[in-house]
Amino acid sequence: MDRKAMLAAVKDDAAYFDVIIVGGGATGLGTAVDSASRGYKTLLLEQVDFSKGTSSRSTKLVHGGVRYLQQGNVSLVLEALKERGLLIQNAPHLVRNQAFIVPNYEWWGGPFYGVGLKVYDMLAGKLGLGPSKILSREETLKQIPTLEPEGLRGGVIYYDGQFDDSRLAVNLAQTAYEHGGIMLNYMKVTGLLKANNMVQGVKVRDELTGEEIEVNGRVVVNATGAFTDGLLKMDNPEAKPIVSPSQGVHVILDKSFLPGDSAVMVPQTDDGRVLFAVPWHDYVVVGTTDTPIDKPVLEPRAMEEEIEFILTHAARYLTKDPERSDVKSVFAGLRPLVKAGEGTNTAALSRDHTLLISESGLITITGGKWTTYRKMGQDVVDNAATVAGLEEKKCITENMRIHGWLKNTDKTDPLYHYGSELSSVKKLAKEDPELAELIHPNLPYIKAEVVWGARKEMAMTVEDVLSRRTRALLLDARASIEMAPEVARLLAKEHGYDKKWEKQQVEEYTKLAEGYLLV
Q1: Burial class (CB in 10 A: 0-12, 13-18, 19+), 322
Q2: Among the four 26, 29, 196, 231, which has the fewest Cβ within 10 Å?
């Protein structure tokens, strides 16, 4: 993906798009892949970087949603289980089968979750990942030796999917690009163009240069997640807010807290949410919280009570009690939950997606979750084609391989998530031995990944590389700060920037990353 070339194509006086998508998170990217693969002329605009918001800050799960089953939302679970199965087929280099253990500390827990998870298996049908079963106390501790043994009666094992969210986002952008889509990061939509009260395009500012342009299109899609209401107000200043943003926080711990390959799922915490402890890239992701917030921000911060909540609950279920000093990184993401009355408990709001068509023809898609991104994209494009009067074309994404598709990846290889491009990244490192060097001794990333990110994945800043092209910021925030000067040097060399840019990038990144540290 070449940002300069794509930007030039957008600035062309003759440029006119069938579908303009605002927002480069899971939903916007899924919509772009669907639209471009149907042959519609597609443009996606993201104000910062692909998946900068919620979509790079998830619990890293591709799942049907056991707790939605508990809530009786069978249709959402059915849809999510189908999409989970398709995603494992379409992006096997990034999505893997993950065993989960539900520990049982009460006499009724085993049978209750045993039956519930059998229903989960049944709903998955042919796309199931493995049968759930009830485990004895000994079998449960064998799977997770660091589980609190006191009062433990046994457990239930079931299977779901686990993935790398921002790497999938990059691959989706590449997939849309391969089908003719124009995918631009650092392009902020500042207004809507209208004729006869109908939306016919967008005003955009290039955040890297400050240049402002206008782009015309037959239909505009609002896929801005937690920022949905802002674009709705651009369309209609009287529009009532439809999103009730909720903050989810996760902490990253050392692998010693959860050795082995199994994850833990605690079905009922004090605030009614599920708590997960999941192995990820040789670390452990623990979360999540569900805290209503007033206003969405680009860089949400974990609140003190959320951090305490996670550490307290983790200590209840693990023999090794995590302290603040054990936390490698803490990150927060915002869920764009659709408002339901005046209630304040966002844990009870549905994760179903909502699609609205304004009187001006603006299409808004919000809610949902990573697992169902493809189906959301399909629904949006079906409606967009109708609104814009586009030639009807069938959706082809159900069995479409995502960029980087590789069936049998060696998950012990630190570069496995590049899939079919793994050999190309290794070739870079072979051609220039300096690029084969680790950037930091505590993390598996090599210098070639910075160069690859700049050349092939539109990584424009140090944060793009350390937060989303690699996952250094999320895995070890302190180590990532120490990596920043070298990453800035390599990026400056690739993009032709000077020492002043390098210095500014390091300063900006350090300030941002310090917010991921607890001590």
Answers
A1: buried
A2: 196
